[in-house]
């Protein structure tokens, strides 16, 4: 197996999810049913994270991006 090229991009934007797993694109003041979880999927295709606690996703995300 060849090693992952150094040029592989790692980008993992965090997205908010409703209870039915649809992405939340609501803005303040709009009728949002409520965000129940946060997900992040890295563009490298080898990492994703889901949690009800945004800080937990951010922590794992930072860990992945700094230890790629
Ligand atoms: Zn990655
Ligand atoms: Zn929403």
Short description:
This protein is of the alpha+beta class and 68 residues long. Helix content is 19%, strand content 24%. The chain has a domain at 12-18 and 34-68.
Number of distinct helices: 1
Helix content: 10-25%
Write down the secondary-structure element order: EEEH
The main sheet comes to: 3 strands, antiparallel
Mean pLDDT value: 92
Proportion of strand residues: 15-25%
End-to-end C-alpha gap: 17 Å
Radius of gyration: 14 Å
Shape: elongated
Total E-strand runs:
3
Strand order of the largest sheet: 1-2-3
Helix- and strand-based class? alpha+beta
Bound molecules: zinc ion
Low-confidence stretches: none
Write the layout of secondary structure elements.
Blueprint: E1 14-18, E2 35-41, E3 48-51, H1 54-66
Antiparallel strand pairs: 1-2, 2-3
Bound molecules: zinc ion (2 copies).
Describe the fold and architecture.
- The chain has one helix and three strands; from the N terminus they run E-E-E-H.
- It is an alpha+beta fold and 68 residues long.
- The chain has a domain of 42 residues.
- The chain has a three-stranded antiparallel sheet, covered by helices on one side.
- It is elongated, with a radius of gyration of 14 Å.
- The site of one zinc ion has 5 residues, from loops.
């Amino acid at each position: 197996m060849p090693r992952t090229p150094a040029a592989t991009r790692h980008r993992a934007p965090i997205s908010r999810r409703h209870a039915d797993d649809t992405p939340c694109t609501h803005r303040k003041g709009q009728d949002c049913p409520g965000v129940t979880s946060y997900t992040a999927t890295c563009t490298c295709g080898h990492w994703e994270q889901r949690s009800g606690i945004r800080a937990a996703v951010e922590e794992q995300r930072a860990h992945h991006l700094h230890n790629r």
